[in-house]
Amino acid sequence: MKNKEYLKTVKKEMPKTKHLRTMLRAFLVGGLICCVGQGISDILKAIFPAMTEEVVAQFTIITIITITGILTGLGVYDEIGNFGGAGSIIPITGFANSIVSPAIEHKREGYIFGLCANMFSIAGPVIVFGITASIIVGLIALIFPGWFAK
Amino acid sequence: MINQTIFFSNNNVGIADTTTIAGPKEGEGPLKKYFHNILDDDLLNQKSYEKAETKIHVAAIRHMLNKNGMTAKDIDCVFAGDLLDEIIVSSYAMREFDIPFMGLFNACASFAEALIVGSSMIHGGLMNRVICSTSSHFSTAERQFRFPLELGTQRTPLSQWTVTGAGCTMLENNPELPIKLTCATIGKVIDYGVKDANDMGAAMLPAAMDTLKTHLKDTHRNPDYYDLILTGDLGDAASRLMKKLLKKEGIDIEEIHDDCGVLIFNREGQNVGQGGSGTACSNLVFNSYIYKEMLNKRFKKVLLMPTGALMSKTASLQRETIPGIAHAICVEVV
């Protein structure tokens, strides 16, 4: 059997991801996380009516990231991720999980070369792309000031 | 050596004893009554999982010595391997023993490699008694080959679960022993271009097929010479595909084939994807279930074929494909 033929057979014969099921789960988990975020935001608004919309949003993010960090440490978030897939990766909670989990894992290799050096081993690309995109947008705004005027 | 097969024709390579230490999840699986020891906890009060795996490996060898009332002086050499970079688990485990040591690596087929090298030494009369041991640990392998443990990733249906545990086989130059290693086929590295690191079964399947076909040809045997042809860790889907592909070539092993990865876990209930994998997988299954059932004469002729996916994270990132290897060892009740 030739290699190409074999790869074709493997593609045909091996079990595949059940996309409908994983999408439904992602929708449920992602939606639930967003609902929790909205809930926290509403509670904050009710307790501190003086807070501006922007401050509430920031506090909500801080709260939800803290909760994710704790859940990751307790070994709960990976179960949520295993069930929800992209539903738990895309929201900010997924980003928090991707920083806390390597930090926990690499603590044993010491704080500097273990924890700190590896903390961004998974989230790193997100940060690089984020910074690159903001530089490009910033340059465009600088060159064409009219485009971003209100 | 005939082609790729070596024969231990002096009929003196016997299995003197075996021992196994299984992790907690393995201990809940279908083979729990066969394991010699089962751990309650896979960290064992150590600071890291690497240290825990080393402790398990040490414990397996020590248990073997103790239960046979032996000391380091009674063992000529230990052949050991594991999955971690620079096989640190085996090397660090052997700090504890005053026994000559040879470290081996063939990924999940390391156990086969250890048995073949050990048997050759004994058959040739160079050594009298050796220990072949391997270990693996879910948490150390996951970390080295995939992602941090607590990262919320989804396991694909093709993924496999690295077995936690260690086991050893003691081989002896003793024609009186009931179970003997009679021949072995040394496999070649075969790569059909599978790239998916989650689909190790498909990566190792061509190697398993090649070794099996070569073994049957070299020994002029039919598959039904064996009561059991036992692959290492192809997993459920790849095992079925292998049987299908072999059938197309006129080799029918449907009734006599099993896979250690499939045997060690309850696939449905334990959420392990296609089954178990890892250096300890074929080791734990052979040293517990198969050896004990061979002593009971339920199996008389077994072809053990541990399979290995020779991958590394660096090579995968460099878009390399995954080469596979499989060695076959014929174990018989004589």
How are the secondary structure elements laid out?
The complex is a heterodimer of chains A (150) and B (334).
Chain A (H helix, E strand, L loop, with lengths): L2 H11 L5 H29 L5 H21 L3 H8 L1 H4 L2 H15 L4 H8 L5 H20 L7
Chain B lengths: L4 E3 L5 E10 L1 H4 L9 E2 L10 H19 L9 E5 L6 H6 L7 E3 L6 H14 L5 E8 L1 H8 L15 E2 L2 E9 L5 E7 L14 H20 L8 E4 L3 H14 L8 E3 H5 L2 H4 L5 E2 L1 H17 L5 E5 L1 E3 L3 H5 L6 E3 L1 E6 L1
Q: What keyword list fits this structure?
A:
heterodimer, A: about 150 residues, mainly alpha, 8 helices, about 75% helix, about 0% strand, B: about 325 residues, alpha/beta, Peroxisomal Thiolase, Chain A, domain 1, six-stranded mixed β-sheet, 11 helices, about 35% helix
What does this structure look like?
The complex is a heterodimer of chains A (150) and B (334). In chain A, helix 2 crosses helix 3 (53-73). By secondary structure, chain A is mainly α. Chain A has two domains: 21-119, no CATH class; 124-150. Chain A is 77% helix and 0% strand. Chain A has helices at residues 3-13, 19-47, 53-73, 77-84, 86-89, 92-106, 111-118, 124-143. Chain B has 334 residues and is α/β, with parallel strands linked by helices. Chain B folds into two domains: 8-173, Stage V sporulation protein AD (Peroxisomal Thiolase, Chain A, domain 1), CATH 3.40.47; 179-333, Peroxisomal Thiolase, Chain A, domain 1 (3-Layer(aba) Sandwich), CATH 3.40.47.40. Chain B has helices at residues 24-27, 49-67, 88-93, 110-123, 138-145, 200-219, 235-248, 260-264, 267-270, 279-295, 313-317, and strands spanning 5-7, 13-22, 37-38, 77-81, 101-103, 129-136, 161-162, 165-173, 179-185, 228-231, 257-259, 276-277, 301-305, 307-309, 324-326, 328-333. In chain B, strands 1-9-16-13-10-11 form a six-stranded mixed beta sheet, sandwiched between helices. A six-stranded mixed beta sheet of chain B has the order 3-2-8-6-4-5, with helices on both faces. In chain B, strand 10 (228-231), helix 7 and strand 11 (257-259) form a beta-alpha-beta unit. In chain B, helix 6 (200-219) crosses helix 7 (235-248). Chain B starts with a strand and ends with a strand. The chains are: A mainly alpha (150), B alpha/beta (334). Chain A binds chain B through residues 1, 3-4, 6-7, 9-10, 13-18, 22, 72-73, 75, 77-85, 88-89, 94, 97-98, 100-102, 104-106, 108, 122, and chain B through 47-48, 143, 147-158, 192-194, 199, 201-202, 206, 237-238, 240-241, 244-245.
